[in-house]
Amino acid sequence: MEDIQNTVKKFKEARKELSKAIIGQENVVSEVFMALLADGHILLEGVPGLGKTLLVRSLAKVLQLDFHRVQFTPDLMPADIIGMEVLEEDRSTGKRFFQFNKGPVFTNILLADEINRTPPKTQSALLEAMQEREVTYAGKTYKLPEPFFLLATQNPLEQSGTYPLPEAQLDRFLFYTVVQYPAEQEEVDILQLTTGNQKNQLNPTLTADEILKARSWVRDIHIDKELLVKVSQLVRSTRPQNSEIDLVKQYVDWGAGPRAGQSIVLAAKAHAFLDGRLSVIPEDLKAVALAVLRHRVVLNFVAKTEKFTVEELIPELLKNIK
Question: Rounded to the nearest 5°, which phi and psi values hold at 177?
Fold first, then answer.
């Protein structure tokens, strides 16, 4: 129990260290830590200049993890991400052989910047890494380092020449997090922090081994069966064929699958852990529901014409799950 309390304290210290580089964005930082603890991945959406790349880079420093960044472009190939075999020669014997050169995916934290700018063929190169934590090339399987954490970003403004992520790949992300503009005072603080010579030093707080232990403890956190039933009801209520909610029947084409329920439970456990509790309460489920369901509920044409959003739908669903 003491080890758990010490680790929770270190995560709080890590958040404090991040605040030296990231002003505001409390909700985004919380969801990043929850996704890390739940062994999930996160898709960040926001306009340029909101500090998404800085957040990921600073996170790697505070957690003492290896970090790689890949800028996704239309001409990016799968081998540019996972690696490729190259022909090499042993100078002593003259014998030639193929050697697999690992790509940037072989890291602890991978930033896939503007992932929707690359074609589906390259996007899908990440699927095995996200789900299985391994890469297969030329019939051989290579394990990724642990922990492996993917943060992908996309720009909501420029859609011309982009390739929206297919639903199957979106479902692999634990959270879909929207990065908002900073508040007025936060923006003033950002200007003060970033336009001078003074640079804040980020102190390492956690290690890879401590993160892996914390992930194990998160899975052991208790959740009542009654709450599991509520999670199931919430997820099933997003499906038009199962739901008794008029808004769902009117505006939803496809609801969330079983992975959404798994994600809500794991994320709620991570939320409880970061709050220093060893049991999930209803507030934990409410705190993570929107980020988990935002990308898993597909609205129909009527919703788009009437500008009805998932952000409006999920709170209504939560009201119906008492």
Answer: -110, 130
Cα distances (angstroms) measured from residue 136 to each of 58, 84, 126, 201, 213: 30, 11, 11, 39, 27
Which region holds residue 133: left if phi is over 0, alpha if psi is between -120 and 50, else beta? left
Taking the model in full, what pTM does it have? 0.89
**Where are the extended beta strands (E) located within the chain?**
42-45, 67-71, 83-89, 96-102, 109-113, 134-137, 140-143, 149-154, 175-178, 252-254, 298-299
pLDDT of 274-305, one tens digit each?
Answer: 999 999 999 999 999 999 999 999 999 999 89
242: its two tokens: 């199962």
Residue 284: both structure tokens together: 């934990």
Name all domains of the chain by residue range, CATH numbers in brackets: 1-195+203-220 (3.40.50.300), 221-322 (1.10.8.80)
Q: Positive or negative CA dihedral for 145, 289, 270, 217?
A: negative
∠ Cα 82 126 138 (to 5°): 45
